[in-house]
Amino acid sequence: MITKSWMYDAIIYIYALSLLFYFSDFAHTNREAKRMGTGLLSFVWGLQTVYLIMSLVSHPGLSAFSVFESLFLLSWFLVTVSLVVNRFFRIELFVFLINVIGFSVLALNFFSNPNVSPTLGSWKINDELLFIHITMAIASYAAFAIAAVFSGMHLFLHRKLKEKQFTQVVRRLPSLENTDRYAYFSVIVGAPLLLLALALGVVWIVLEGDMRLLYDPKVVNSWFVLAAYIFYLFQRLGMRTPGNKLARWNLAAFAIVVLNFIVSNFSEFHQWS
User: Fold this and answer.
1) CA–CA dist 101, 164 (Å, integer)
2) Which of 1, 207, 203 has the alpha carbon at shortest distance from 117?
3) Which of 37, 48, 194, 200 has a beta carbon 3.0–4.6 Å from 76's, enabling a disulfide?
4) Would you tell me the crossing angle of helices 125-162 and 92-111 to the nearest 10 degrees?
5) What does the alpha-carbon distance between residue 201 and residue 182 come to, in Å, rounded to a whole number?
6) From CA 242, how far away is CA 233, in angstroms rounded?
7) How do residues 146-155 score in pLDDT, each as one tens digit?
8) What is the rounded average pLDDT for all residues in the chain?
9) CA pair distance 140, 229, nearest whole angstrom
10) What is the pLDDT of residues 134-187, one digit of tens each?
11) Which residues 6+ apart lie within 8 Å of 96 measured at CB?
């Protein structure tokens, strides 16, 4: 059981990491990121295959498969399909979205099974689920904060250059191109992390059995945060919006992130106190 638990933990974390690389490749064509994402996803597929073989050996036939193993098999099929599509077609968005579904199925399957022990014996399954959810959410907020700082620098530098004020501070700042690029890369990291955190949050709500929590103020506002950053990416990639306008939108999106902390005071289960 300990071996299977560690295997499942490895699958969850490596799966999440592979999705970050895939999203980076989708948002900004990056061969190295795609190669890393494919390698990690292939490793996930390998671990899942080993687990399935172990299950087949321990069962007399497919009819003995439990719901847990059936859902695991579903996730394995989704990973397999995504690897095939990734190999023969160039549909990066499909590969990313199908794996978000696969990741959610896997997480729901894992954390709803009391027989799969978490890494820390003193924790309950839901405790580990919340730990991963909170870690990803905080990491996404950190990435958005970094993006906001670079966007603020971009607007400051843009105004100073427009006014031809070449001060010592201006000379020490990165170029307009770099501040825009650094902000963009930070959002590329933060957006998929928030998406995965929200997916795990929905899994936790399903396990708790209280679907009213889906309408919790912080949950709803978190979807607005994700939508704001997705629109930022759409403006940059699809509309070719100028850097100064993107920087303003990035700061506006971060204001919604800050609002998320204020909304926590009205949340049933997200109160910081």
Assistant:
1) 50
2) 1
3) 48
4) 150
5) 28
6) 12
7) 888 888 888 8
8) 76
9) 11
10) 778 888 888 888 888 888 888 887 777 676 766 666 666 677 788 888 888 888
11) 19, 22, 23, 26, 192
- Phi first, then psi: what are they for 167, rounded to 5°? -80, 175
- Gap between the Cα atoms of 109 and 189, Å rounded: 26
Q: Which of 41, 37, 23, 191 is nearest to 93 (CA)?
A: 23
Q: Report residue 108 as tokens.
A: 């729901």
Residues 6+ positions from 87 with CB-CB distance below 8 Å: none
Orientation of helix 176-208 relative to helix 217-237, angle to 10°: 150
- Spatial contact of 144 and 190, defined as CB atoms under 8 Å apart: yes
Could you report how far apart the first and last alpha carbons of the chain are, in Å? 36
pLDDT band at 82 (very low <50, low <70, confident <90, very high): confident
The single-letter code of the amino acid at 108 is L
The runs of H, that is alpha helices, within the chain are 2-27, 31-58, 67-88, 92-111, 125-162, 168-172, 176-208, 217-237, 243-263
- Average pLDDT of span 241-267: 80
Mean pLDDT value of segment 7-33: 78
The token pair that represents 230 in the structure block: 């997705």
